[in-house]
Design goal:
eight-stranded parallel beta barrel; single chain; 294 residues
Length: 294
């Protein structure tokens, strides 16, 4: 009797094991078949938003420079925000301003200079004498640096004076060439992002908004994209906007939050992600979520 019992037990255990493996295989197959769905990308992005995003590299270094990005990575940031402009010869470089005046010793529009001209300008000395001689950083250099360190890069393309819509294919092709499509966020207005989504609807986008009207306009674009969030300047965000975006199934990002008081306030309002100049990279939003009153 005991032998029969053990034989039946082995058969039953084997059957359960095979059934479990079959279910796992089925789940894997379903995941593979659904690659690129909103749910899967949101799950990936949900990990990213546990980190504060570094604004233009690391504070104290020449903004948007290779040195600033490198330092932000060394400090532990997992997402680096930077701004893209175009040289006269249509090479994408990193610059927040359409002009070189504020950050370099030269004057004039970035687009009036070739990338070779820009490379010999001093983009460091105005930050600190120790950075004298720092040249402009190309998008290629930034992408390769982020790829080597397995971090995400966000490209601010929202200023059409430095980033004409007609050049989206140049940036897209460069990001694709260096294998960074899955680790690059394109930030722009909803209207401008339509150009990018016409090239590839699977890119990750951040919709630059001013108020609720921009959010409503952006919903069409958000639903077209593989993944989208909505990005606001911190003084323009309201609880009504946050609630509306969340109701539609998307995340809210704000910039630029530089102190813990604001960080806690916005987190308790439900903001999902921040960009910062001051705060470190390891702030976990969960520690600031308001607890329900007893």
């Amino acid at each position: 009797m005991n032998k029969v019992f053990y034989v039946l037990l082995i058969i039953l255990s084997t059957s359960i094991c095979l059934n479990t493996q079959a279910k796992k295989k089925k789940n894997v197959t379903q995941t593979e078949n659904n690659t690129g769905t909103r749910q899967e990308v949101v799950m990936n992005y949900r990990y990213w938003d546990k980190q504060a995003e570094s604004h233009r590299g690391y504070k104290g270094f020449p903004e948007n420079s290779f040195l600033a990005i490198e330092e932000a990575i060394m400090q532990g940031f997992q997402i680096i925000e930077c701004d893209v402009a175009f040289s006269k010869d249509s090479v994408p470089v990193l610059s927040h301003d359409p002009k070189v005046d504020r950050c370099s010793t030269a004057k004039g529009l970035v687009s009036n200079y070739t990338v070779e001209d820009l490379s010999v300008m001093d983009f460091g000395i105005k930050t600190d004498k120790k950075f004298a001689g720092t040249g402009i950083t190309t998008l290629k250099e930034a992408l390769l640096l982020c790829r080597r360190n397995n971090v995400i890069i966000e490209l601010d393309c929202a200023n059409k004076e430095r980033f004409p819509n007609s050049n989206y294919h140049i940036v897209y092709n460069l990001v694709k060439k260096y294998g960074m499509l899955g680790s690059t966020i394109f930030c722009d207005t909803a209207e401008n992002l339509k150009t990018l989504l016409d090239i590839d609807p699977n890119v990750i986008v951040s919709i630059h908004c001013i108020g609720l009207n921009d959010v409503e306009k952006g919903m069409e674009v958000a639903r077209r994209a593989r993944f989208a969030d909505f990005s606001f300047r911190q003084n323009l965000i309201t609880q009504k906007i946050i609630n509306y975006v969340h109701e539609q199934g998307f995340y809210v990002k704000i910039w630029t939050v530089d102190n813990l008081i604001d960080f806690k306030r916005f987190t308790n309002m439900g903001v999902d992600h921040i960009t910062t100049n001051q705060l470190g990279p390891k702030f976990d939003f969960r520690i600031f979520i308001a607890k329900p009153e007893d």
